[in-house]
Amino acid sequence: MRSIFRNPLAVAGLCIISAILLMAIFAPFIAPYDPDAIHVKSILLAPSTEHIMGTDGLGRDVWSRMLFGARISLLVGIVAVGIATIIGIFLGAIAGFYRGWVDTVIMRLVDVMLSIPTFFLILAVIAFLTPSIWNIMIVIGLTSWMGVTRLVRAEFLSLRNREFVLASQTLGAKDYRLIFKHLLPNSLTPIIVSSVLGVASAVLVESGLSFLGLGVQAPQASWGNILTDGKEYIEFAWWLSLFPGIAILITVLGYNLLGEGLRDALDPRTSKN
Amino acid sequence: MLSYLLKRLFWMVPLLVGISLISFLIMHLAPGDITSTEAGFNPKTSEESRQKLREMYNLDKPVVVQYGLWLERISKLDFGHSFASHQKPVFWEEKDKDGNITKGMIQEALPITLLINVLSLILIIAIALPLGVISALTQNKLPDRAITIFVFIGFAIPGFWLALMLMYWTGVSHHWLPISGLHSLGSDKLPWISQVIDTLHHLTLPILISGLTGLAGISLFVRNGMLDVLHQDYITTARAKGLPENTVVYKHALRNALLPLITIFGLSIPGLIGGSVIAESIFAIPGMGKLFYDAVLMRDFPVIMGILTIGSALTLLGNLLADLAYAWADPRVRKGVSS
Amino acid sequence: MALAACHQKPTSDHVDYSPTAPIEKGGTMIDALSGEPSGLIAMIAGESSASAIASNIFNSLLKYDKNLELTGELAQSWDISSDQRTITFHLKPNLKWADGEPLTSDDVIFTWQTVTNDNTRTPYGADYKLVIKAETPDKNTFRVTYKQPYAPALDSWSGLHILPKHLLQNQDINTTSFARNPVGSHYYKLDQWKSGESISLSRNQNATQGQANIDRLVSRIIPDRAAQFLELMADNIDSMSLNAIQYARIFPARPDLNEKFSLYKELGNSYTYLGFNLKHKPFDDVRVRQAINYTIDKQEIIDGVLLGLGLPVASPYKPGTRWSNPKLKPYEYNPQKAIELLQAAGFEDHDGDGILDKDGKPLAFEILTNQNKEREMTAVLIQRRLKEIGIDVKIRVVEWATFISRFIKTGDFNVVLLGWGLGVEPDQYNIWHSSQQAPGQFNFIGYQNKKVDKLLEKGRLELNPDKRMKIYHDFAEILLEDSPVVYLYAGYGLPTMHKRIKGIDSPAPPAGIGHNAYEWYIPKPYRRNEMSAN
Prior knowledge:
The complex is a heterotrimer of chains A (about 270), B (about 350) and C (about 525). By secondary structure, chain A is mainly α. Chain A is about 70% helix and about 0% strand. Chain A is elongated, with a radius of gyration of 22 Å. Chain B is about 70% helix and about 0% strand. Chain B has 15 helices and 2 strands. Chain B has a two-stranded antiparallel sheet. In chain B, helix 1 packs antiparallel against helix 14 (about 300-330), helix 5 (about 140-155) packs across helix 7 (about 190-230) and helix 7 packs across helix 9 (about 245-260). In chain C, strand 2 and strand 3 (about 70) form a beta hairpin. Helices cover about 30% and strands about 20% of the residues of chain C. In chain C, helix 10 runs antiparallel to helix 12 and helix 16 (about 450-460) packs antiparallel against helix 17 (about 465-480). The longest helix of chain C is centred in the last third of the chain and has 18 residues, at about 465-480. In chain C, strands 13, 14, 15, 18, 19, 20 and 21 form a 7-stranded mixed beta sheet that branches. Chain C has a 4-stranded mixed beta sheet with strand order 1-10-9-8, covered by helices on one side. In chain C, strands 4-5-7-6 form a 4-stranded antiparallel beta sheet. Chain C is an alpha+beta fold and about 525 residues long. Classes of the chains: A mainly alpha (about 270), B mainly alpha (about 350), C alpha+beta (about 525).
């Protein structure tokens, strides 16, 4: 694990994510204004010392909204991936541990889900259920567990016949104990990598849904809907799209760098030099 | 090889059933009576179209029976007609009694989406291959880092934002490229070669953007695959035998690293067929993504279910082809050493 | 850029479009549509994009002129019988369809039969079903008889596109391919429809209403509004309807755009309102509705959301027209009065949580609106004002299909933020009469008032304009007092047109700039380079 600190890109990713997480957590203390405070007299002001990222179409302070939006965007990403990971671990563990027909059924389900264009599924479900932050998180989670399932299953299959597992099994260890005590801890690495990368994708999916009007609802701010608000004035009120655009870019980049760095550091093959 | 093919074909059946089941369930996900979902105020129409819907989907029967009947219809490739678009056939063209042909909606949209995505896939490969190889050969040095950051930026930038900025820059500030659409007005009067150039001109930005987004996946895949292979025994042996480094890298390592790429292409097929809702909306391209999004907004269930089913079935077909190609290229698979 | 040679280039960056030039025929005008019409038979299709294009292809019997007075289109004149139950339309002589066939009263009665046929899937049949007898005494005369006088009758005949019998008589109107390949009688005919891309019309040489000046009208389908505006700035489309920010902020800051485009401001055709579900508590209490009305600062919404480009309204009629009651004033912004009214209704902050409550239930509700930037922003402003006096409001934005099917038709909503049209015809029976509350009908807020019912019934029977005006003034007064909806604003329509197009009335007449589109022209030097083979 220490070797990750030798990878400057992973370190950069970690720094970016930590900084943004801190900003999101301490948003109420950092934000100079109430993110929802409307000032009809100061609509679409360009960045200035008073409003460092300018104001939006209702005169709200963009910097304050960006800080609070970070909470929503990251929350969507993290909870969605959390859901996907839990489902993935559960199904993958069962498939890899018990094998046989259970494995077959689960892996066919994975194949089915992988062959349906996922974004279509998300779109239809959210439109039918009406968008809300919870629906968005749940639906993204329910449509992105297939990768984790495959990973966990593969790890379990390879660990299953290792001596330490067989030994504890002959000693009469219960299945759940085997799974949680021996197999799962030993397959955490790929799960962590794929979760980190998953957050990045979920943040992007949220912004895409916002673009289509199916994202987090007003007046709640998310980076996706601030960016969407600004899309019609990309050149005139550039601050409305530039800052959220860059925020999404940097965050997703951070998660990717960290995820890829972790993979490199933890994968014995690629880290050999 | 034949038994492998038969086995694969056999496994497609339960998958197709699963796909159709999910597509079918989507329709039942809409809250309330699905027959009340017509988009508009209109007491009379809705009662009529409700009746039509009930007949079409046998809604008075138990759900299992409904599903069975629907399965029977789609097995005959009968995907019905759109509710929203004046009864256009969902899948394939139809002729009415006066001989007027009405094109199918998927029939019109699919080629456009396929064209864009195949072109962008070609672009991705053309750029990602060299980037991945350079990355692997300069592992953890400056070029590797720079390439990694570059491809990740491409992945991380919100596509519609980049699209709008590029549209402004190349279309408004400079008149280099068309902003949206597929053809210039009146382009059908041009000779075919100019028409092709005109269309490519319109597709430059969409392809560029989807290419940029997809770069990271493939280039990292090539990089890691190369690294993997470069550390294997036979490469070490080859090096030890004193083969020139170029031969080692390009003849032995790259070839073996590229094999798994075939599978990656198989996996990218849902995207190829599904297209991008966002890019198609922003560039005004009438492809599958736009068609699906409009259908969702209009609650046009025959179109929604048709696209999900046909899209997924084509994906399965694509995966099958990819697997066959893989098996053909890698004899180990054929011999039954399953992954 | 070798490819640039075959790409459509702008005429030039330095053309001065301001001088006028003599009228010439020819040229192409391009606009943008956000959505593709499902067909071009307006009575079936129903979307605004469909009627926008279809109204260039089809004629009605009557039309509204630039001052919104009724005048003949296919009809040369019309008589109303002395018992006011029968209207006789005399068609203009020698009318023709675009394919050269004669257009006669047979086509008119065929259209009437179609729109009233129970198999025709149209929401617009109700007006025409009141006709108890339709007849064609000769090729040029069409006569309809109503059971009792029906004041909105003439208006209804200005909204029905006459369809060709010879092409449609053995077809199923709901599915016919005619919808994508129509033949009409107006200035233009369909030239080419490229699915998902564009719809091109060309001048109808057989038009009997006169010949339009511009040769071709092209509507490009560009779903994204941001992309539309980029296309406008790049001079690839000639007209677009702007939003307030584009009109009031971007254009003044961009002299280059002002050189190319003219801005117009026309009184919009709709108003935006906050409607209460009167079947739900506490909105059945008029004091609660009035209190909310007093809490909403309409001027703030107009200034903030519309940047001043809108008017407050106090009745469901266009301000300044005869139907609008000049005595009525919108509820002023008066939170103090609101608090008193709520107190009288039993709402006070008993538990000290900052939210008013009654019988232990907090005064909290959800404002439901559809995906529309202006409405979303308006809802946010209202939410803030209501919060200030202790009403807890949430906002839910859903797309249109869900909005209608999930919430409106089921009556499962508390408060909606929506718009209604401001038509020329004052009859609003469908919206406010207590009989119009079935699922799918327009009185979905459940408004019931016996006096209003009476007035609406009376208004339909009264043909004398002055007496009619009095009826609708009284109706609007009761409606304002009852406050079943809070009138928020009527926004201006903000079309912009490229200066290459000449002959546009400025300032916009009451009917809007589009009323004389057939007289618009594009002088040769200003035209775009047409795509050609060389």
